[in-house]
Amino acid sequence: MDALYSLTLPLVESSSFDFEKVVCSHGFFMMAPNLWDPVNQTLRRPLRLLSDPTTIVTVQISHQDPSSLLVQVLDTNSSCNTFSLSEQDQNHLLSQVARMLRISEMEEKKVREFHRMHNAAKNRGFSRVFRSPTLFEDMVKSILLCNCQ
Fold first, then answer.
1. How confident is the model over 10-69, as pLDDT tens digits?
2. What are the structural domain ranges in the chain?
């Protein structure tokens, strides 16, 4: 499938970022609407736009360059024949991906401090825990998963 848009999310300079380990660090990656492809090392999921929250785009995230992530907009539920993505919406999509994968200077600082205290975790590559693009989605999944037996 050809991408409608290809966006680049720069990574904070880090030796601790491992895309697969971050995505697969928690069971949320196996829950809808996330779709992890272990063969191609890509994560696919829908995200909302800022300018029109009723418009949902499907993005595919991959780590093809050591210094950045590739975020491809694959399709949309928009009924417009000519779909366009404003700079504001592009930034919003990238910020959602950054939240999911905990990509920020502050998160990197936390990882470095954690690794300083727990060398075994550093050696195993444990650093970040995958989360949803919004706090609301994280809360719903957490509530619904509690005592689910």
1. 998 766 688 999 999 878 888 889 999 999 999 999 999 999 888 899 999 999 888 899
2. 5-145
- Out of 3.80.30.20, 3.40.50.300, 3.40.50.11210, 3.30.310.20, the CATH code matching 5-145 is 3.30.310.20
Structure token pair of residue 130: 């995958």
Element housing 7 (H / E)? strand 5-10
Alpha carbons 100 and 25: distance in angstroms, whole number = 12
Please report the pLDDT score of residue 29 as a whole number.
86
Half-sphere exposure of 127 (CA within 13 A, CB side): 25
Where would I find the H helices in the chain?
Answer: 19-23, 87-101, 105-117, 119-124, 135-145
| pTM over the 0.85 mark | yes
Q: Which residue bears the tokens 């848009």? A: 5
